[in-house]
Design goal:
alpha+beta, 2 domains, D-amino Acid Aminotransferase, Chain A, domain 1, 5-stranded antiparallel β-sheet, 281 residues
């Protein structure tokens, strides 16, 4: 049999890997993005915990159990094979191995792939952000982890580019703040730390979890909330957070933020400059 690929008749056998990949065909899988900075791997246990939760929700099985030790060994192996860079990003992709269309045939086994990519740190400040117009978040059994079917975030990224914004903030269907295009959202206001609740459909980011643990350790006031932009005061410190780092948002729509809370500096140091959330690779 033959297929038509970019105007060219191509033997189906030469495309077999692509045509049988359910991650490509249906977005049937998930991924994790793990950062290496200065020879240290960050948030490894949190990444594995979220991956195991995704496997359970998607009913994916593997022939070998995933543990911190196994994942760390695989990352070390790939890292050394690629010249042991000081800084890097590992992308761990898992997808279902099965025949069938929407309904997999005996489709609980899975494949995985880990690739090594260059590391890019988050900008210190994102000068201009807008609320998204083209997409809204909806909470589901899958919304808390990173799915391979990420068209939702691709469209948000296109809107961000088209509007010449430094960031785009997604809301849920009732207008409550949810997350940024590839980061979680936080703000500090009246000596309390706020972040959108998972019920808004945001991803349960590993850095989000780590920030909440950090705040709880210091007995800071924390609230996972469902509020619109009008709730945030211009005196607040507003920032996005992911494995690449923290970024202050200077302006969101017509609101300019003060961004001077000392918590922010302490948080940035403890997350990425200390050894509390990382280990040597």
């Amino acid at each position: 049999m033959a297929v038509l690929f970019n105007d060219r008749i191509t033997p189906e056998s030469s495309m077999d890997g692509l045509l049988r990949n359910r991650g490509f065909l249906y977005g049937d899988g998930f991924f994790e993005t793990i950062v290496l900075r200065d020879g240290r791997i960050f948030f490894l246990e949190a990444h594995l915990e979220r991956a195991l939760k995704a496997m359970q929700v998607l009913q994916l099985h593997t022939d070998k159990a995933w543990t911190n030790l196994r994942l760390l060994h695989l990352l070390q192996q790939l890292w050394r094979e690629n010249g042991s860079p000081k800084d890097a990003v590992f992308k761990w992709i898992v997808w279902r191995d099965s025949e069938g269309l929407y309904s997999p045939v005996d489709g609980k086994d899975s494949h995985y792939l880990i690739e090594l990519k260059p590391y890019r740190s988050a900008p210190a400040v994102k000068p201009l952000a807008y609320l998204a117009n083209t997409v809204t978040n909806v909470a589901s059994a899958y919304s808390s982890f990173k799915r391979l079917s990420s068209l939702h975030y691709v469209m948000a990224g296109l809107e961000k580019t088209n509007r010449k914004a430094d960031e785009l903030i997604l809301t849920d269907q009732t207008g409550n703040l949810s997350e940024a295009t590839s980061s979680c959202l936080f703000w500090i206001q009246n000596d309390a730390l706020y972040t959108p609740a998972l019920s808004t459909g945001c991803i349960e980011g590993v850095v989000r979890q780590s920030i909440l643990k950090w705040a709880a350790h210091y007995e800071n006031s924390i609230e996972e909330t469902t509020v619109p932009l009008s709730y945030i005061s211009p005196e607040a410190t507003v920032f996005t957070a992911n494995v690449a780092g923290l970024s202050l948002i200077a302006k969101l729509e017509d609101k300019v933020f003060l961004n001077d809370d000392s918590w922010y500096t302490d948080l940035q140091h403890d997350l990425f400059d200390s050894t509390a959330f990382s280990q040597n690779l």
